[in-house]
Design brief:
Elements lengths: L1 H16 L7 H9 L3 H13 L3 E4 L6 E4 L3 E8 L6 H9 L8 H21 L4 E8 L3 E8 L4 H9 L4 H10 L13 H8 L2 E7 L1 E6 L4 E5 L6 E11 L6 H7 L11 E5 L13 H8 L7 E5 L8 H14 L4 E5 L3 H10 L7 E2 L1
Parallel strand pairs: 10-11, 11-12, 12-13
Antiparallel strand pairs: 1-2, 3-4, 4-5, 5-9, 6-7, 6-9, 7-8
């Protein structure tokens, strides 16, 4: 029984990790379990024979990939009479019956939120829905031929550019239709999946469960028309919607959206430094909608005195009820924050 359990553990590890390690999965697995690569090869061979994996190339150049159990593409018209829950039931739900209930709940939440955005905000005519299921993950793509999400936010809210629109989107509670929406949908959707990305115009924004946020601008490439959103979650995930909602709620708010985490790197344009009060004020916009704001300084090597002072002294003095917490600060950034905090007793640090 113990041998069978270990065999299942090794096979599961290969399935979970082959997507990120297609060419080195034998090495990674051998190191993880302290077994030979020859032993790992036997497990991989069995998974290929069972149709879970497929191989490309030969010998040392062999690459392993997960086999698609499901790969369906649908075109759905975008009209006022189209309802996102019906699209979910008709085109997606029945394809995902093998996945655990908690994962299915997350998929339903994310799909209906994003498809509703396409219906009500994209100004497009058609949406393309792609559903992919492997032994390791569910992946859903929704693309539309509309105005583009960053362009829509920029125009309606009068922002400086598409880059600024991404920063505001990452904060949460952003909507171009406040009478009918809270602005929480995209924020929470990006948090409930292991991987979430938006491609629109020449900008690509990605959020990963690990906490990584990427913003890539391809100024020379062909602009992407409309909006393309990808959502991926592991079929082994133990996350639930309730747990994730709870991470952004204060203890006394019953899942109210009172916390946010913002990658400060999204504020930067290229290699510029964060030194001015105007940059800080752009970051601080709409902080008054939250009780706690986590500023993630990952990738930021230095900040200016005026930038730090505007956030950690001026703003805090004017808004003592808002708790600002900073994480992943390098030594130089930490020094500048501590200097600005000399008169602030309510900010905290991790």
């Amino acid at each position: 029984m113990e041998k069978r359990s270990r065999s299942r553990e090794i096979s599961s590890f290969i399935i979970k990790n082959v997507f990120e390690n297609p060419q080195t999965i034998s090495k990674v697995t051998a190191e993880k379990f302290g077994i030979s690569r020859q032993a790992v090869s036997r497990y991989i061979k069995r998974l290929v024979e069972d149709g879970v994996l497929k191989a490309r190339g030969r010998a040392r150049n062999k690459v392993y990939e997960l086999t698609d159990i499901i790969h369906k593409i649908y075109n759905v018209p975008i009209r006022p009479d189209v309802e996102e829950d019906r699209v979910w039931r008709q085109h997606v739900k029945h394809l995902l019956t093998p996945v655990p209930a908690n994962v299915l709940d997350i998929c339903q939440y994310g799909f209906t939120e994003i498809f509703n955005n396409a219906i009500e905000h994209s100004e497009g005519h058609t949406a393309e829905v792609t559903v992919k299921l492997t032994a390791a993950f569910v992946e859903m793509w929704i693309s539309d031929d509309g105005i583009g999400i960053f362009n829509k936010i920029k125009k309606v809210l009068g922002l400086e550019d598409h880059h600024h629109a991404i920063l505001e989107l990452a904060k949460g509670k952003l909507t171009t239709d406040p009478e009918h929406h809270t602005g929480e949908g995209i924020f929470f959707t990006s948090r409930v999946f292991d991987y979430f990305s938006i491609l629109s115009d020449q900008l690509y924004f990605c959020h990963k469960k690990s906490g990584d946020d990427w913003l890539i601008e391809d100024s020379e490439g062909e602009p992407c028309k409309g909006t393309l959103i990808c959502m991926r979650i592991s079929t082994f995930s133990s996350d639930t919607l309730q747990e994730i909602f709870g991470r952004y709620a204060s203890e006394d708010t019953d899942y109210g959206f009172t916390k946010t985490r913002i990658p400060v790197s999204l504020l930067k344009y290229g290699e510029e430094n964060l030194v001015s009060r105007s940059q800080a004020r752009r970051l601080l916009a709409r902080f008054d909608r939250f009780k706690e704001v986590f500023l993630d300084f990952q990738g930021i090597k230095t900040i200016g005195q005026a930038f730090a002072d505007e956030i950690f002294r001026v703003f805090k003095k004017q808004n003592p009820q808002i708790k600002i917490i900073w994480v992943n600060a390098d030594e130089e950034v930490e020094k500048m924050i501590m200097k600005a905090l000399s008169d602030s007793a309510t900010s905290s640090r991790i």
